[in-house]
Amino acid sequence: MFDWISGFIDAVGAFGIGLLMFLENVFPPIPSELIMPLGGFNAAAGREHLFWVVLAGSLGSLAGAVFWYWIGRRLGTRRLKRLAARHGRWLTILPEDLDRSNDWFTRHGGSAVLIGRMIPTVRTFISVPAGVARMPMASFLAFSAVGTVSWTTLLAMAGYLLQAQYGLVAGWLDPVSTVVVAGIVGLYLWRVATYGRRKRRKAAGG
Asked: pTM of this prediction?
C-alpha cells in the first residue's frame, strides 16, 4: 500500500493528495497516516509546497466529511433504524446502537466532531450522527475544519521534518499500514460473526 500511495502522489501531486484524503474519509482503510506524511516528504524534497499539501489534504478530508454528513441528514434516525433492522448484520449495528450514538452526540455535539476528526476511523463516521442530529452546516464545517486542519498539518509536518530519514521510516510504515487495514477488516468480520449474539443479549436486556 505504501508503494502504491507514494507512486500516486508522485504522479498526480497535490490533487492526488486531496483525492486520496477524500477517499480515506469515504473508505477508512486508506490511511491518512500514510497519505499526509508522504505529501510532507514531497514538500521537503521540493516537489510540492507544504501549504498546498496541507490545503489539498484538508479540503479532500472535509469533502469526505460533508459526504457522510449529508447521508446522515438525508436518511435520518428512522431510516437508519430501518436499515439497521433489515441489514444490521452487514452494517454491524443494532437499532439500539443508533440511540446510544445519538444520545452521546447530543451530549457532546461540537466537541465530538472536533475531536473525532483527529481519531482514525472515527473521523469518517462522526459525520453521520452530526447529519442525523441536523447540526447546522456552518457549525459542522467549523468544528470539522479545526480538527481536520490540525490533523493534516501534524501529519504533513511529520513527513516534512523527517526528510532524509523518511526512507528508513517507510520500511516499517508499509507493514504497519497493512496491519492496520487487516485489523479494520478483522474487526468488521468479528462484528458480523457476533451480531446474532449481541442481538440476543440486547433483547434479553443485557
From this structure: 0.74
Q: Rounded to the nearest 10 degrees, what angle do helices 195-203 and 166-193 cross at?
A: 50
Helix or strand run (H / E) with residue 46: none
Question: How many structural domains does the chain have?
Answer: 1
pLDDT tens-digit map of 26-64:
876 667 777 888 888 888 888 889 999 999 999 999 999
Q: What is the chain's length?
A: 206
What cell does 194 get? Answer: 457476533
Can you list the pairs that 201-206 forms with residues at least 24 positions away whose Cβ atoms lie under 8 Å? Answer: 202/94, 202/96
What pLDDT digit, counting tens, does each position of 166-191 carry? 665 556 566 666 676 677 677 667 76
**Which of these, 21, 18, 13, 43, lies nearest to 166 by C-alpha position?**
43
* Structural domain boundaries, residue 69: 2-203
